[in-house]
Structure prediction request, 311 residues.
Amino acid sequence: MKANAEQTKNQTAVQTSQESAWKHVTSFAVMIVLTAIAFAAVATNLVPSHLLVPLLLTLAAVQVVVQLYTFMHLNQKGSGFPVAFMASGIFIGVISAVALMILV
Amino acid sequence: MGAGNHATATTGLPAHPEKATFEGKNKVLGFWLFLGAETVLFACLFGTYLALKNSHLGGPTTQDLFEIPLVAAATIILLTSSLTSVLAVLEMKRNHLGRMQFWFGVTVLLGLAFLGLEIYEFVHYVHEGHTFTSSAFGSAFYALVGTHGSHVLFGTVWITTLMVQAAKRGLNLDMAPKFYVASLYWHFVDVVWVFIFTVVYLMGKVG
Prediction:
């Protein structure tokens, strides 16, 4: 009985990770597409020049969020503290970066 | 045997082996605090770079130097290595030591390929007259991109040494958190590269 329960538990674990393997391949495809759009926007001149930098920064930000929430598993339960640490880091980082750009 | 006693080779690892022990939980939590601090470090280097990128003292500018195909190749390599390291962690959770080692091995090889491209790129720039001391742009560029490159180098050494350790000791609740945080580090290095190819190379081409 105990062995059976263990086995079922293991199978469930295997099934969940098989599902998420596909999820990860999908989010990888999303990242490649976002990257391709960014490179294409710079290479082709299709985007008006005043919109280009905001577009590139938005694409990068989206890609980082995808990476944090899928590859780095911030979507899992109990990620409160990691999210708080990264949010604080990004908050202080953005202030520092903007201040340096203005002051230097 | 301690906390790992219930998870033997025959029954396999629990669903989240990296957080199954108190030590593992703390290791992951502490590592996220470190990554928050690393974010601030890189943000400061980005701010400095953006402030100084036009101070090239008559030397080559961003538009003269950067070649998009090389950057695209480096980006694909690093993005792919991020996928292979997440696949390695999935195999670790399934208790497949061999497949985990395979995917981490691919990750390390991709990291080395990235470093090879970066070394080639830097040597090329030095021949063009773009060095660490040639201008404020040069200093800020090599400080930012070089700090990222040294993170890639550290990551490849770290993962390689863990692979050697796992080959000797096998997979257990002691090894799992080590691999998990190493893979978090690797993803973070990739996240930083996303901003480097955007802010330094693509925005540098735009002008």
User: Anything to note?
Assistant: The helical segments of chain A are 2-44, 49-71, 80-103. Chain A touches chain B through 53 residues (CB under 8 Å). The two ends of chain A are 69 Å apart (CA to CA). The mean pLDDT of chain A is 85.
